[in-house]
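Translate sequence into structure tokens.
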Amino acid sequence: MTVKQQWIAVAGIVAVLAVGLFVGTRMMDAESYHVSIGAQARGFNAVDMSRTDGSLKTLSDYRGKVVLLNIWATWCGPCKKEMPSMEKLHQEFASQGLAVVAVSVDNPNMETAIRDFVKEYALTFDVLYDREGLFRQIYPYTGVPETYVIDKSGIVRRKWIGDDDWSSESNRKFVAQLLAESEA
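Result follows.
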């Protein structure tokens, strides 16, 4: 093999690798998407558990509000721990434009368990259910609970993995600050 043929072979291998890398990244794009702070929040739809007819709610239903979007499950201990503080935050700020939205990612056919959970914890904020199991594709969470705080313009301003005291002074100040901002 001549030097020229060797260089052609190397160029061919590099071209094949480049095409493979390009195709691979395009195929994995949906799976590798991470919702990051400063990014536009991704739209979703999930079953509204306050209704029995299977009605859906979407992110656009909360347009113009500050949204605390919590991903949780009925079996999750840390989720149970943080729900009362989310309820307190909701009680304090709902009238000012805060929408607390908790999306259950429980397995299929868990409607009764979710409604029982809502009753047990006396939750008055919106509880939705990802009955189809598609939420992970939209918000690729690492576990539950995981929470996104979205401003009035639909921009993700905070992402929190794990439970938190949502009624803490620092979280209340952060929410109050977002509520005071005008929509862009």
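Note: The chain has a mean pLDDT of 90.
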